[in-house]
Amino acid sequence: QVQVVESGGGLVQPGGSLRLSCAASGSIASINAMDWYRQAPGKQRELVAAITSGNSPIYAETVKGRFTISRDNAKNTVYLQMNSLKPEDTATYYCNAAIITTFQSVLRSYWGQGTQVTVSS
């Protein structure tokens, strides 16, 4: 069994900041990439940021310079620091982790349940 759990969402005013966390737990042998996606109502889910096990990050153009992804491999946790938030950042944010479990030597994708981020005055 593997669980992926996000936290840290909420309501923030434009220009404000939030920090999201995502922790993976359970029968984990190793974690490859850990990613943040978001989905706004009526829109497709989109990649926001990703980070490899070697800590190489990539960002969507819409968040470059405002968001920072980082990870703590010892804690199987990935973070998303979001600064200068805009109303268009409003969405449900999902964490995805590519994990090899201790009971199956296959890389599989595990999703969290999502955390809501609302940017509004």
Overview of the structural elements:
The protein is mainly β. The chain contains no helices and eleven strands. A hairpin with a 4-residue loop joins strand 7 (67-72) and strand 8 (77-82). The mean pLDDT is 96. The strands form two sheets. Strands 2, 4, 5, 6, 9, 10 and 11 form a seven-stranded mixed sheet that branches. The chain is elongated, with a radius of gyration of 14 Å.
Describe the structure concisely for a colleague.
By secondary structure, the protein is mostly beta strands.
Per the principal axes of the C-alpha atoms, what is the gross shape? elongated
Low-confidence stretches: none
Helix-strand category: mainly beta
The helix tally amounts to: 0
The largest pleated sheet is described as:
7 strands, mixed
Q: Could you tell me the mean pLDDT?
A: 96
The helix content, as a percent range, equals under 10%
Seen as an oligomer or otherwise, the chain set is single chain
Number of strands: 11
Tell me the fraction of residues in β-strands, as a range. over 45%
Order of helices and strands: EEEEEEEEEEE
Radius of gyration: 14 Å
The end-to-end span amounts to: 41 Å
Task: State the main characteristics.
single chain, mainly beta, 0% helix, elongated
Furnish the topology, listing elements before pairings.
Blueprint: E1 2-7, E2 10-12, E3 18-26, E4 28-39, E5 46-51, E6 57-59, E7 67-72, E8 77-82, E9 91-101, E10 108-111, E11 115-119
Parallel strand pairs: 2-11
Antiparallel strand pairs: 1-3, 3-8, 4-5, 4-9, 5-6, 7-8, 9-10, 9-11
